[in-house]
């Protein structure tokens, strides 16, 4: 197969240059303006399975109001006339933003037409494709003899720092921006994880006194143009920035921090680009469990996560709430974690939804129930924060939820939600994040039992369907109409 890794186009190079002009619908007169785009694709192949992953980075100017003052675009991957995956993105009208979109599907691309087809399209208010902005067909991913699995996989190193680096290595083909947070304290990472997800980059961890080798090596592999160091000099010293600059001389290295944890979260929250349904998520800045899964939900909703005290709204948080537009407020934990009075004050009259259970796992299950079933979930320890927060950018890329487990067993409510998330999917993927001390082998066995029972019938049905619809030779992956 051909291997072209990355392809980049400017606005002057339209879909006409891709060889599929005859298949392209003409965009409406008032369509989003696609300034430039780039595609990176990898097809992982090993003895067990194969998986395609594509990262589409684009610079888009919003033109048409599809609702709430936002213009919608749709990014798709096609193979032999079959839509394999898509994402709908939003850009505020009159603004130009950079978007990172992740697409994937299990299996090799078929033999009917060469490669795959990647489409960037104008979308209507319902998110449907109404005209191509650009297309690449055929596009050939790089073939890599690398990690590919379904059912249950484990990604975990001997330390939290190495686990975060391994997670990035296996789940990020490329990243132009990377965030680095402290491995020793949770507040900065809790607020930063949704922003990392929006920027399309991983969240790596560092010791306060200097950048560890595992994080350095992963930064050099990704070679991002920008690195955001989250937190003040107590959380991550100047030596960390010095080490990053030494590892990446050409990168822009920026510290994003406020005077304290509340102000750092506020600074990050104000940088999150919200969509047409603006929301704010609130978590305790005094303890981590309730905010772990909430951080992943905030990332999915493209919303900021701010921190509050149990009995008061910190001044930095209040200032951020006065600056950020929102129509709804979501919070995690019971009244001992965040009082009703705090939520009322923070909401300023907006509706409030609180998710709370009898313990951290009950709360986690209640939040996990808000994720739709898309066949993927990441599972991390609920006893500590680093692995779950490093999971959030990965979860946001793939539409997965983040579930919390006890070290030796998955709580019943969480297990029920995991079963719902993967049920009926022929190739579900449960990713355990962390080593065997954090998440014991007994949990892995428990998850294999759930996934195996829910996916076997769906996999057999998919196989029978595939036998009935073998692709015929054709020159295009995209639909003729």
Automatic annotation (TrEMBL):
Compositional bias ranges of the Polar residues kind: 466-481
InterPro entries: Bact_Sporulation_Assoc, Cell_wall-bd_2
Coiled coil: none
Signal peptide (UniProt feature, chain positions): 1-31
Disordered, as annotated region: 451-481
PANTHER family linked: GERMINATION-SPECIFIC N-ACETYLMURAMOYL-L-ALANINE AMIDASE, N-ACETYLMURAMOYL-L-ALANINE AMIDASE-RELATED
Positions of transmembrane segments: none
Official protein name in the record: Putative cell wall binding repeat protein
A Pfam family assignment: CW_binding_2
Native organism: Ornithinimicrobium humiphilum
Annotated keywords: Signal
